[in-house]
Amino acid sequence: MTEKTATGQPVPAAPEDAAAPEAPRPTVLRDILSGSWMVSVLSIFVGLLVGAVLVAAADTSVQATLGYFFSRPADFFVSVWRTVSEAYLALFRGAVFDWEAQSFVRAVRPFTESLVASVPLILAGLGIALGFRSGLFNIGGQGQVILGAIFAGFIGYWLTLPLGLHMLVAIAAGIVGGAIWGGIAGALKARTGANEVIVTIMLNSIAGYLIAYLLKQEWFRQSGSANPQSRAVDESAALFPLLPDPFRLNAGFLVAVVATVFVWWLLERSTLGFEFRAVGENPDAARTAGISVGRVTFVVMMIAGALAGLAGAAQVLGTEQKLTMGIGGSLGFDAITVALLGRSRPVGTFLAGLLFGAFKAGGYTMQAQTGTPIDIILVVQSVIVLLIAAPPLVRGIFRLPAPVGKGAR
Amino acid sequence: MSTSTETHILTTPGGGPTLRSPIDWKFPIVYGVLALVTLLLFGLFGGTGGKSTTFSFAAGTDLFGIPPLTVSAMATTVAVGIVLVAMAAVATWLAVKREKIGIWFPILFGVLFLFAFLTWAGAGNGHIPLTPLLAGALALSVPLIFGAMCGLVGERSGVINIAIEGQLLAGAFLAAVVASAVKNPYAGLIAAPFAGALVAVVLSFFAIRYWVDQIIIGVVLNVLVVGVTSFLFSTVLTQNPELWNARQALPVIPIPLLGDIPVLGPVLFRQSILVYIMYVVVAVLYVALFHSKWGLRTRAIGEHPKAADTVGIPVNRNRVINVLIAGAIAGLGGAFFTVGSGLAFGKEMSAGQGFIALAAMILGKWNPLGAVFAALLFGFARNLGNTLSTMGTPVPGDLLLMLPYIVTIFAVAGFVGRVRAPAANGKAYAKQ
Question: Which residues of B touch A142 (CB under 8 A)?
Fold first, then answer.
């Protein structure tokens, strides 16, 4: 039952390659069609298609035309096309370029909004990706983001430091906060073998209650009001804007770029990163080769937590400017999908973060202009990731050739 | 334990005196700390001098009423503290003698500790409504218990199910919609398992057919269910709430006689049919898992699929069936959020309970009864946190709510006995 479909799957001992008997010669066309990025592109296409079906199905005008479908089927298709294209065009205008805008500034602002939305996704996604490459499943992005935000935010409004230095200290605090939260999970895994999935899920909940508790304490929030939110972070601690006023793009984006380069260097060029990948590929072999698996586990989780903490810091110091109960949003889980879409590669994660950031920014415009709820974005994103996780399925849908040789996903 | 003693003996040839296992200090230390906390923090320095705490047991129509119990806060906490210190001493003495203590010991210790805690927390704050506290705890545990049973059936057969959260949410959604459309809460109850099973179909399709990492699938499925249900909620359900999302509540069915027992009756036997179904599901699963052919096969494919395959058990087919059954159970549990509590559907209303159910399953060591106990613990802590924060006690509710999660971390890290997952958990099986 599985032989035909599971070709080239990385997971367990795969059965003999079903494409083997023919052994077609690798050609350029075949490379393109069987390549992993082709799967990504097609997955995005199918994801949007599924979203379109839902959008059309939930639309009242489409439902009305369905009532007399057999007498005038054209009405139905016209209605579907109008509904779906309106929604997706609004999505595009909200995410990339708004050609209906009054001024040039307004026309290009959506693109910068996508970048703003992508910053925390990229940072937290890099943390998750680092874990994946090292064989660790870090579901704790949520808690690490919250801890990073708590630390960075509190330093941001509690301390008084000169401009610039304050920002750096606050960012460093966010890194420390996330690293502590990730480090707990890493240390427990290294010392006792506690499953990191469960520990990080628990740490997520604990972080949620922690921020709820802290935001009820006046010594912490320093806002003077009863609302569960903190004072705004000082000007000196805020991430400086990269563009003049109507734009919200801030230095957080530079942080995301730097973090991407750093993670790339760490994974692909450093000795430590080599150890990470060795443990991720085969912990037993790594142990035999003299790598301390426990130490790697701990360090990976610390760095992963630090990256997620950085995402929290970017949120509180850049976009939000104050601590709220919802500061973490659903970033931790979004980051997992970002890392999966990026195939756990730093650059891939960066691009996936940009795409999902664009979805997020465009989703708000779509919701405001066409009334299509932004929740459809979640559907599109999860379908994309589901398909990307199962390349044979995508190849099956589009009758693509299986990749030649090993290692192709 | 026994293996470590054997290795000790193996390393000392010559037949010397048998080596004794090292003293297990973990429990004496935990008991000691808790006893001291009770004696000092709740008792002597608890700031409860002269105040009193009232526990009320009444719940309307009892067969015979128990009068409320009023105790002097400080005297009670100090007395209980002294008893706990004595118990900790006994535990230490037994640990030094390497003797095991029965399960009653930690339970008695826990109940006494809780009693002292409640006495301290409720001092001077009116009365502690014990029966509603317990009844609410059971209610909050319902989705956790269903979810934990779902996870358990899956993981016992070797499939990790992180999508419990999504299955609960899907069950809640379909239960609300069907109950509202048919105007009958029981219709929702019948529909809910199908929603959970539908999520399970996708899970098994990707996990068992395409060998995709089960944790990845679970995480993504959660997002997918949140997306689909929220989208439909914002469009279809809000366009016509009277038709699609009207509140339908399962009625409370008191069981005659049993429901009239004071305290226990209202807690256990004055509930909706969903809770009674839950009792049945737990009992049936416990018996089936350990005393039936199905259970033996399930455990076999979860522990050693190759061996199971060798004796002719179709591994993947059984896994698919079990994952579907598990999904149906979780879907049913999801019905608690809507028809079970008499609420309309709301976005993301499962609010992370599926993950807590997962933790309850692990804390319960993949055993139905253990998982139920853990789920009740979570439910109780949550309800206690809510109750105490509305009473205006000195305990911060948010910190109290963290407690079960911290306990779970300790449990997973091996401080509360080893927890061991089924051996083939999360590994796709391919016939060689």
Answer: none
- Which residue carries 């689909």 as its tokens? B228
Measured at the CA of B202, the angle between CA B198 and CA B207, to 5 degrees, comes to 140
Nearest chain B Cα to A191, which residue?
B413
B212: left (phi over 0), alpha (psi -120 to 50) or beta: beta
What is the Cα–Cα distance from B123 to B54, expressed in whole angstroms?
A: 8
| Local structure of residue B12 (DSSP, 8 states) | S
φ/ψ (deg, to 5) at A374 = -65, -15
Task: Dump pLDDT digits (tens) for B306-316.
Answer: 999 999 899 99
- Find, among B57, B77, B81, the residue nearest to B67 by Cα: B57
> Do A353 and A308 form a contact (C-beta atoms < 8 A)?
no
- What domain count does chain A have? 1
Q: Count the residues in chain A.
A: 409
Residue A107 inside a domain? The answer is no
> How near does any CA of chain B get to the CA of A210, in Å?
7
At A30, which helix (H) or strand (E)? helix A28-34
For chain B, domains (ranges, CATH) are 25-124 (no CATH), 133-416 (1.10.3470)
Residue B56 has pLDDT above 90, yes or no: no
Residues A332-360: tens digit of each pLDDT: 888 998 998 888 899 999 999 999 999 99
Tell me the pTM: 0.85
Residue A133: domain span: 115-371
Q: For B347, which residue in chain A has the nearest alpha carbon?
A: A375
Cβ distance of A210 and B402 shorter than 8 Å: yes
**Is A2 within 8 Å of B430 when comparing Cβ atoms?**
yes
